[in-house]
Amino acid sequence: MIANNASSTYLNSKVMTASPQELTLMLYDAALKFCNQAIRAVENNKIEEAHNAIIKTENIILEFMSTLDEKYDVAKNMELMYDYIYRRLLEANLKKDKVILEEIQGYIRELRDTWKEAMELVKMKRVVNE
Fold first, then answer.
1. DSSP structure class, residue 7
2. What is the pTM of this model?
């Protein structure tokens, strides 16, 4: 119980002190984690566990969709991508389809890796400009 409390306190502190960019990365990581959990649950025929993990992934995708800034051109493309992922998650949940979940996992991983790379480029640019 004490270790669980310490872990929760650390995570809370990490979230509360993170930049918006770091929070986005954390959300991508969480979406990947929940998608992985859903895949494992489907493989083990744990229907309720799969459902719950897919719902958590859906909620993260919905959060990404709700925070898009429409004044940027890229937002429309991101909205289309997130909408596609969300619709596929709905289908995966309905069918408990591992193949669809693996497809979604690939898209989320690609988005996460691109986001992390962009964060590193911004960080490098700041260092060069200082």
1. H
2. 0.86
